[in-house]
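Reviewers asked in the last cycle whether our approach scales beyond single polypeptides. To address this, we selected a multi-component target totalling 462 residues and predicted its structure end to end. The input consisted of the following lines:
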Amino acid sequence: MAKTYYDPADLRKFGKITEWNEELGNKFFDYYGKVFEEGALTAREKSLIALAVAHTEQCPYCIDAYTKDSLQRGVTKEEMMEAIHVGAAIKSGATLVHGVQMMNKVNKLDG
Amino acid sequence: MATKSLKKLGSDLAKSNKQLEILSNGIFANDELPTFKNKISETSQFPLKAKPLEILQINVGYMCNQVCEHCHVDAGPDRKEIMTQETMQQILDVIKTTGAHTLDLTGGAPEMNPNFRWFVEEASKIGVKDFIVRSNLTIIRANKKYYDLPQFFKKHNIHVISSMPHWTRGKTDKQRGEGVFDMSIKALQELNAVGYGMPGSDLKLDLVYNPSGAFLPGDQSAMEKDFKKALMEDFSIQFHNLFAITNLPIARFLDFLIASENYEDYMYSLVEAYNPAAVANVMCTNTLSVSWDGYLFDCDFNQMLELPVNSKSKHISEYKTELLEGRNIVISQHCYGCTAGAGSSCQGVVA
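The resulting structure, written as structure tokens, was:
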């Protein structure tokens, strides 16, 4: 057994998932590659979205990958920090907006 | 921020043999990663052969007014290697006889060579198609005696290529030194003022971008768009093209990679991004690099690693086209830097 659940070196092995299911693995990587191509959004904008989502998903591999990818695209650290605050705001907003549900329930049960 | 060269600091990494040893051992000795030779052999591209000479790149000296964090030359104010007028004359004699269409002056800060202006004046009489000076920009503002450089460049129709690591002050100064950004902006505005870099202008002004850390450059055309937009909006600066150049793992950048424990990951990135199509166009196949003391190398990087050309013609004074054309290019693992992604050369991407 590995001593930790996450090993940074495993990121390089991501492509190996195709070895145990070539068809689905390849379809995923084709899709993934296509998503990040320059489109209506620039590859730079997509990289920042990916960085923010990497944080909300709390995926260490994705954080490593998209921090580096952002740097490669000339993104500044100020831009990166703002992007993850957007992610954090949505996360906290998503928690707090459920407060309305709590309030509704209190009002129903306890007038 | 460093103020001294590795050489002055007496660092082990100032020695080229030590750098070559690092690049041949570790992950490349235990077969974790393929050597560059094995990699290009997979596509039958070994040995790399020199094609007819197109670009003569002259390093007129390692002295520089800046001490940039990742300089592959390990240049700085304390470097005393300066090309003499005698060597310059030998180069002029050779240029007249070759078919090279591009003459590319680099350094250090080439303008700091006391014979720089004489050399430019003499070389411009020969009439090469593209005459490049790699100017670090800040030299133009470093001392009064350099203030007229934009006019001097214009007079001789010099193609100016300058380093600009980012369009923000913070990232630029971190890599190139405190105050470099503001001085560079001022220098670019002065170049624009005499016509350099303006749309449709024959006075060519290109910028070189190289990453500020242990990562590869992004897409060259996307970076160019970002640079143009930001420099125009913030400073009304215009330029022609942006060249994205990959940092090669030698000298100060190698020192940084090792000290920051990024060396192995960086080499993995280079090998993973290996592009056989870039190999076909690497600059060493059409370029010769001449050192401050007149010796010949396949590229500026090999010059710094003291890997001489594989030819009987080793010095500019004994230059012979027939001995140099078709020679086998000298390679090591640093060469992966020129074949990653869209490839990298002193003129930007190659594939």
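Residues 164 and 209 of chain B are 6 Å apart (CA to CA). We regard this as preliminary and will revisit it once experimental data from Aim 1 are available.
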